[in-house]
Write a structure and sequence with these properties.
Pfam families: DUF167 (PF02594). Belongs to the UPF0235 family. It comes from Steroidobacter denitrificans. The chain contains 2 helices and 5 strands; from the N terminus they run βββαββα. The mean pLDDT is 83. A 5-stranded mixed β-sheet has the order 2-3-1-5-4. It is an alpha+beta fold.
């Protein structure tokens, strides 16, 4: 049995549009048009990641950082676009760049 794929995301809410903006430290940086109010930015983040990877929103969840800009996102494996990332891998700059590329 495989576990979830985990990676850190740095979120910039209230951006002009929702998009991947590269990496920030060891995180995938994502700009979100949604405001950080009543969970709107978190919901937009989950929907954006699921849409980009072509998976159901129910397979994406925020494991940590519900009210922070830096979040730990979990995705139920396997995911075709993230073939290079294995469950349990510790995310580093290279892995963050791979996730960032998969989300574009």
């Amino acid at each position: 049995m495989t576990g979830p794929i985990r990676f850190h995301v740095y979120v910039q809410p209230r951006a002009s549009r929702t998009e991947v903006a590269g990496t920030h430290d060891d995180c995938v940086k994502i700009r979100l048009a949604a405001p950080p109010v009543d969970g709107a930015a978190n919901a937009a983040l989950v929907a954006f990641i699921a849409d980009r990877l072509g998976i159901a929103k129910s397979r994406v969840r925020i494991a940590a950082g519900q009210s922070a800009r830096r979040k730990l996102v979990e995705i139920d494996a396997p995911v075709d676009g993230l073939a290079g990332c294995q469950p349990g891998d510790r995310m580093n700059r290279l892995a963050a760049a791979q996730v960032s590329a998969a989300l574009r």
